[in-house]
Known about the structure:
Glycosyltransferase, single chain, five-stranded antiparallel β-sheet, disordered N terminus, alpha+beta, Beta-galactosidase, Chain A, domain 5, globular, 33 strands
Amino acid sequence: MTEPWLFVETPATLAATSVTVMEGTTFCIGEGAGDLGGVDPGGLFVRDTRVLLVWDLVVAGRRAAPLNVHHESPYSVVHVGHLRLPSAEGAQEVLVTRHRVVGDGMREEIGLVNCSGRACRVDLRLLVGADLADLFEVKDGRVPGRPLPTTVERHNHLRVDGDRASGSGVVIVPDDAAVADAGSLLWSVELEPHQAWTTDVEVLVRVGGELLAALHPRGLPASEALPFQRRADWWAAAPTLETPDRRTREVLRTSVEDLGSLRIMDPAHPDQQAVAAGAPWFMALFGRDSLISSLMLLPLAPDLALGTCRALAAHQGRERVDVTEEEAGRILHELRLGPAGTLALGGGSAYFGSVDATPLFVMTMGEIVRWCGPEAVTPDLMGAVDRALDWIARSSDHEGFLSYARMTPQGLRNQGWKDSWDGVNFADGRLAEAPIALAEVQGYVYAALLARATLAEALEGGRGADTWRRRADDLKERFDERFWLPELGWFASALDRDERPVDALTSALGHLLWTGIVDSSRADRVAELLLSPELFSGWGVRTLATSMARYDPLSYHNGSVWPHDTAIAVSGLARYGYHDGAAQVADGLLDASLCFEHRLPELFGGFARGTPTVPVPYPAACAPQAWAAAVPVELLRALIGLTPADDGLACTPFVPHGLLPLRLDGVRSRGASYLVEVASDGRHRVRRRT
């Protein structure tokens, strides 16, 4: 059987009319009218198990036509539908409402309104079915979608049980007026003229043999539910932005909302939160995705980076296990909670097939000590950092470059961020063969070595800091010698199994600037290439240049534009002082956000701006997606030049005139909150708020 962590380039695509709500590792995908049975793939998912397959409402033998869908919050939605019921006296209009909230289960309030001046009687039937299928099997289309047997208990409760090994199950709890049979609930409703009627139904979920405590239990006011309180706290701590540029205001507002909804927590440690990779299929802890998102979000939510690193450190590799590619010190790629998993955040199946998560973990720890202060880095985290560096050393080749080759045929063929099967290729289209040393990964290792020096200075009295810096300098020199291609004028994207440079021109150049591994003598050429029509589409930086044989603007990794990849290029250009270029690329991304309703997607087509006139969506792009949602924060950090300082926060802005005057209130650094102001003439100041 295909293992769940195998990469599928074309993941399940949701219809444009589908409606998703989510809270932590719970999400629900339905139709505009609120039904679940007509969406493929769809249903209610809790901790990587589909606990509802069918949840369809039939009123007087008919299904309501959708009128409106209103998202009250990421976890709450109201569906409004309409029915025209024939009768001898003429048609009667009935309004149907469904108010759905999710969180370790679901509660739905169903309402009917008789819009006419005559009384009517209707039968309302809720069809219910569950298959308790694993999320991966659903996403990949490997389950038939047939409900399991449903039993009636306690007069009118419906119950579905999975196999004993999984301990999964679901119980549907209506009010006392409902009549149950195997597969549906029935209410007979008498409606006087213009009368409204409501009922509510709870969906209780059992995982691993334990009945989960619903986050929206019947009778609890919405304002007292944990998701409401968490969302309110998140918004209270979020920075506020004032700027005349509507694009930036709106995309940041959407990103803050999305990032709040993408937080997940360990039930055993609810005070520690991490960021999931994306909705709906990736509401789980990922090494690379969660770390890059956390790095970008440090000015907004440094505690999220700390929680992410704590979660990853808790599940750091301990021994070699070929089937999961676990190795001592390695940081995982993906953590799942499927039917065979246990309850805690890290209790599910872990896969470790990522070459970059481990150096990114060390990089993030180095930034945490800068943004949060030395007290945030506990001894156990320092131990995890050093174990990660030991893994890097053991996994590096004889030249000192970190490389990868999968340990099992079921693992990912490519283990960098471009992890599709053809994501690493030569200029002529040939695929690179493992072991592969990716250019950007060497940049991450370089930054990780410098991060370890920073940690030594902050926590160990500087002991060993010079050694770590010398190791970084040595890697930088060797990288320039082996990866620079003088005949082409750019860095190779990788070295293959024969140590040949992979000569494709890719967006990896932006990552090299971002990490600082580029020698200053090469920087002009690297910046020129990133801003050239081959790589810069006008909306963002392409993953693969247009002149390369495998260039395809609608591929996953060979010519598409990924907003997080582009934002990394913006920060890299800014780091080396190419402010005009950084502002130009940032402007392209902000323009693109207008065409995606202010929500940057995981990726979009790499077509040149103007052909067509709008960015082209990628069919299966994930949205919201963590590192795409983090992009507006990263762009602002780069443009304002936000940097933690010993006395709090510093900035060196090059904000484009169209964004001025700019006022960003609530930037976090070392436990304090700051107001950053940049005037129309470029003057700026930073004031401590708390």
